[in-house]
Amino acid sequence: MEQTAIEHLTARIFSAALQPDPEMTINEWADEFRMVPGDASQEPGRWRSSRTPYLKEIMEVLSPKHPARECIVMKGSQLGFTEVGLNTIGYVVDQGLGSMLVVMPTIDIAKKKFTKARLNPTIQATPCLRNKFKVDVSRDSNNTLTSKTYEGGTLFLGGANSAASLSSIPARWLFLDEIDKYPKDLQQEGERRLALLFLDSLLQSAEYTWNEEILPKKVGEYDGHDWVCIVNGLDTVEALVLSNWELRSRAGAGVPEMDAEDRKKLLIEKTTPNVLMAYALASGYFDSDSGQALYNSYREEEIARRIYRIRSQFDWKPTEEELHAYYDAHLDIFQAEKPVRIQQIIFTDSLKGVAALHELSDSVGFDSLAQIYYPGEADIKEAAFDLGWISADEMGEPFFRVVWITEVGEVIGPLRTEWGYHLVKVVGKKDQ
């Protein structure tokens, strides 16, 4: 049966794609085919690796049959490394080994000093490359100063100072020249992006076991000591931890409620340290003495927290004698760094604060005022208006001095801070 033109072309493409990489190395190809143009060298003519033997191993490592996938060269200037790049380009183009991206310090250098002054003359001087693509950039949109299409791929040329010249380019081969001249801010941005990509890949590969019975429930509808998820089979997250994260997240974002999927997203975000710890453990980071000490410290703290949570589930209550004995033996624990516990309602207008203060009565308590004046759902208001135990570090020395001399149960204000006007109720004190 005679093949149609489309079938013939399809068969040709598949046949080319299935061909193995050539056994010939880049330096062997250059010795046989590469011609050095007269205006680019004092020794024009056929390329000879024997003239620069220190470049031979680099080209062998860059060749497809070598197991290395990355080759980094630290060198002086004017030692021929750009010629290695030209040899690699010629080899890839001639053999049709896929697309290639060449990155120079700037897009201007890529166009003028590399493409015009080095690449195009090399293509013209080397017979096996001359017919692979056209070099008349004014007539062929497929072959410009920044891209050249050939059978088997496209050669892209970009500058490290131009994100547009580097984005969304699929390339099997990457050649970076004169990296020390790349913009510093680009290097930092590149490192940041690599870090984010690395973290994203870890999160994508992390394994989560979910407690599907807990996730749909609202805060307060489940036992805080129950588990809500297990990360990578190692770390268990309790429902009490989820409820704290959820209340803070909803209060900050003004979200009235979360569903099961929202809680999963929140847990994935908040358990990033657990994922990193699991990766560090699996990759051998903790094999060193310092790493092992760090890991042991982390695990000891986690075990202590879990033991405390487990014990707190039981109904055991110590006697007065046991409490006093424990207190006397652990006085350092009970030295109050945060001696005052307060609740607050914040107003942007002091007059509204004064008006709210006058609403307090036997029938309208401070918590009832918070339900009126704090936005959001009831559980968010409750979490937001109760600040817990504080010191001067959280609220500032002037604010702290006023609440410290205020009697327990008394409401004062409005007190002005950088956040607004506060009505404050002192609900507890410890001796400093």
In short:
By secondary structure, this protein is an alpha+beta fold.
Give short descriptive properties of this protein.
four-stranded mixed sheet, 3 domains, single chain, elongated, four-stranded antiparallel sheet, 432 residues, 45% helix, Chitinase A, domain 3, alpha+beta, 13 strands
Task: Explain what this protein looks like in three dimensions.
45% of the residues lie in helices and 15% in strands. The protein has 3 domains: 5-182, no CATH class; 183-277, no CATH class; 340-429, Chitinase A, domain 3, CATH 3.10.50. The chain has helices at 5-17, 26-33, 56-62, 81-95, 107-125, 127-130, 184-205, 239-253, 260-270, 272-282, 289-311, 320-329, 350-358, 366-373, 378-385, 392-395, 397-404; strands spanning 35-36, 45-46, 100-104, 147-150, 153-159, 173-176, 208-210, 227-231, 235-238, 340-347, 386-390, 411-417, 420-429. The N and C termini lie far apart (98 Å). The protein is elongated. Strand 1 and strand 2 form a beta hairpin. It has 432 residues and is an alpha+beta fold. It is built from 17 helices and 13 strands. The strands form 4 sheets. It has a 4-stranded mixed beta sheet. A 4-stranded antiparallel beta sheet has the order 11-10-13-12. The model has no long low-confidence stretch (mean pLDDT 79). Helix 8 (239-253) crosses helix 9 (260-270).
